[in-house]
Design brief:
This protein starts with a helix and ends in a 10-residue tail after the last strand. The strands form six sheets. A five-stranded mixed sheet has the order 3-25-24-23-22. By secondary structure, it is mainly beta. It contains six helices and 26 strands. It comes from Brassica carinata (Ethiopian mustard). InterPro entries: F-box-assoc_dom_typ3, F-box-assoc_interact_dom, F-box-like_dom_sf, F-box_dom. This is F-box domain-containing protein.
Length: 395
Amino acid sequence: MKSRRQNLSVESSISAISRCSSRSPTSTNGRENSEPIPADLIFELLLRLPAKSIARCRCVSSLWSSILIRPDFTELFFTRSSSLPQLLLSRQENDELLFFTAPQVHTSSLVSPNHHKKIPFLLSTSQICGHLRGLICLTHQRTVKKRKETVPVMFNPSTGESLELPKVKTSMVMVRSFFAYDPVANQFKVLSMSWPCYKSGWICKDHQVLTLGTGNLSWRMVECSIPHHPTYDGICINGCLYYQAIVDRGSGVSAIICFDVRSEKFSFIKKAQDYKGRLGILTADRDELTGESRYMEMWLLVDAEKHEWSRHVYVFPSSWGNVAGEAQLYYIGMSGNNEVLLSPRYPSSPFYVFYYNFERGTIRRVEIQRMDALKHGRIHTFLDHVEDVKLYANV
């Protein structure tokens, strides 16, 4: 019932704004109105609509479209949305990836998510490359004339818009891509690298970058003097993309690779998660974080050039075993209220996420409904999701 009332409210708002924006300049007494409806008033009214309604409103009229693609409008919409970040969860159903959002800041132990859009996704040939500022970057591998091609796709879960990017330029079979953002230039970039196959070679080559929003979407080769092979998803912090990689296959030695998004230069850090804007690594006393784990270790980067880290140990409360049970959890990141979010990789009934507060040593378990319908397929969980209404041509 609540959802229906909300939909009616949105429909009423759209109808009212439409009547205002299309009102005749002639008044009821036959004389012309000297004060037409100001565009800024429509601007303010539209800012109150959800992102998926904004996408529909672009089709109402040329006036609305011109307002809704203005950089000041999209940036203000994003800023307002950022004040209430959400959890973004996805799960695979058949050959599609379904997206849900749920409140990130709450006191309830039970949350009902909102269903958003879906996008084609084959687990064997598709990969989620990253989530930044309300956008998802995925890659799909397809076969064309007996040759494999990797094609990145930008997807906005809030509006349902998607944009297929140019295929990665490489003759190799395996491709790994990362999604990155430069806050200084306000630019999104996709970093890709490739290697022959797992058996015949492990060092990545053909490092290349695609910059969005330039009007000319094309891949550019960049130099990388650090032989490595990425092993985990990356994280982008303050214009730097970090990801863990193997740098010596024989010994299995790994390092943190740092890619400066603006300069497009590579470096590495010996020995990642984001903690209060700093790079950190979270580990547990066991290979997997479960109800049997007793503590977590956090390593915070102190000096990247000197490869210096600080170590902190956090012992779980006595209730941890009962709260976590048999769930196998992985680290998502830090929420705005200094809690680390832990989430299962696969569906369970019921489905829980966990918030651990380092400073207080407390744990909260929150059930998210409608996530346990599937018994197979991985659950992807993202922190700090915000609604973004930018057109991809302007990203």
